[in-house]
Write a structure and sequence with these properties.
Layout: E1 2-4, H1 8-16, H2 20-26, H3 31-37, E2 52-54, H4 60-63, H5 71-76, E3 89-95, H6 103-119, E4 124-127, H7 133-136, E5 140-142, E6 149-152, H8 153-163, E7 168-175, E8 178-180, E9 190-193, E10 198-202, H9 243-260, H10 279-284, H11 291-301, H12 305-317, H13 322-327, H14 337-350
Parallel strand pairs: 3-4, 3-7, 6-8, 7-10
Antiparallel strand pairs: 1-2, 5-6, 9-10
Helix pairs in contact: 1-11, 6-9, 6-12, 12-14
Protein name: Archaemetzincin-2
Function: Probable zinc metalloprotease.
Keywords: Hydrolase, Metal-binding, Metalloprotease, Protease, Zinc
């Protein structure tokens, strides 16, 4: 096990920069916001922010050496996308069956939309009507290892590009069907065209039983489907919607959309923008940003940090009342408990007045 421990000076420069114009930009934060962001300069087990822990050579950072992106390099990037008055909506496009058909599907994608709305506080997030696999016209195959159906990401990205509304900052396709990017690859969790604001990702492998030989999505017969025979997706298995699946879905969706803002994989502190090579590593990541990546998002959208955390906390707690439970399927937020307590700690710092 290795702990990547950055010095306070290194983290300070990554957060603020030494350029005077960016130092001046940082000075516009309130004292409470600066105090909160600077909590990240001294990470530790009992602190709000943690250092990155690498458990094996198969983890993302040793397997994929990347240059660290500090705030200055993010801010100066001429190719990054920034929302504006004409392009300020995130669109979510469900593809194929997601959960049990009908009400549960609608509820699940609405939970995802609501979380995304709180996470990217200040932008509008809208759902597009669900489309079938046939509607996308994508290629598909049966995976030779897992014996489950997969759909081709490149075709899906082309479809989403045609669907992208004029006021979109980005459009993301979500599906419970496994994905592959090309014939030589086993699978991929997702793929995106960042400069076009288009992405697609699958939650299929976030089912705890996916890698089991008893996984219900494994095809029981040796199918050799022909191109265009989309009937193989009729009634295709989708995993039950659990609290863990919802948490993993929210984490993946916000990580991938974060990339569309130009935020690269984080190598500063434990952060939702860390890369991950496998599910165990993804589960280790927190649900939210470190201070450096949070500042990148904040300068792109211009929200108040405390208001964003309040919105996330509200999403986690809004369906907990007896009245709400009677009127809809209760939101399964048990897996969000650690994140909820973390949000309260963040707000304690942000709302504490200097005395």
């Amino acid at each position: 096990m290795e702990v990547i421990q950055r010095s306070a000076d290194e983290l300070q420069t990554a957060l603020v920069s030494k350029r005077q114009d960016l130092v001046k930009l940082y000075s516009k934060y309130t004292n409470e916001e600066k105090r909160f962001l600077e909590e990240g300069l001294h990470p530790g087990p009992s602190h709000i922010f943690q250092a990155i822990t690498v458990l094996s050579d198969s983890d993302w950072i040793p397997a994929h050496p990347e240059k660290s992106q500090d705030f200055e390099s993010f801010y100066r990037d001429p190719n990054r996308m920034t929302p504006n008055a004409n392009h300020n909506t995130i669109y979510i496009q469900p593809i194929g069956s997601i959960g049990v058909a009908g009400f549960q599907t609608d509820q699940y994608v609405e939970w995802l939309r609501g979380y995304c709305q709180a996470f990217f506080y200040g932008l509008s997030v809208k759902l597009l009507p669900t489309v079938s696999v046939a509607d996308t016209g994508c290629a598909f195959r049966v995976n030779s290892n897992s014996h489950n159906l997969q759909i081709l990401t490149g075709d899906l990205l082309q479809f989403l590009g045609k669907q992208k509304p004029e006021d979109a900052f980005c459009i993301v396709g979500i599906t419970m069907i496994d994905l592959y990017p090309k014939d030589s690859w086993n699978f991929v969790f997702g793929q995106a065209s960042l400069n076009r604001g288009i992405g697609v990702f699958s939650f299929a492998r976030y089912d705890d039983n996916f890698y089991s030989r008893n996984y219900a999505g494994r095809l029981q017969t040796q199918l050799q489907p022909k191109p265009g025979h989309y009937s193989v997706f009729d009634g295709y298995y989708t995993p039950p919607i659990t609290s863990t699946l919802l948490l993993r879905s929210c984490k993946t969706m916000t990580h991938e959309i974060g990339h569309m803002f130009g935020i690269k994989h984080c190598q500063w502190l434990s952060c939702v923008m860390q890369g991950s090579n496998h599910l165990e590593e993804s589960d280790r990541r927190p649900l939210d940003f470190c201070p450096i990546c949070l500042r990148k998002l904040q300068v792109s959208i211009n929200f108040k940090i405390a208001e964003r955390y309040k919105a996330l906390l509200h999403w986690m707690e809004e369906d907990q009342s007896p009245a709400a439970a009677c009127s809809s399927v209760p939101k399964p937020t048990e897996a969000f408990q650690t994140s909820k307590l973390w949000l309260y700690r963040c707000l304690d710092v942000l709302l504490k007045q200097n005395g």
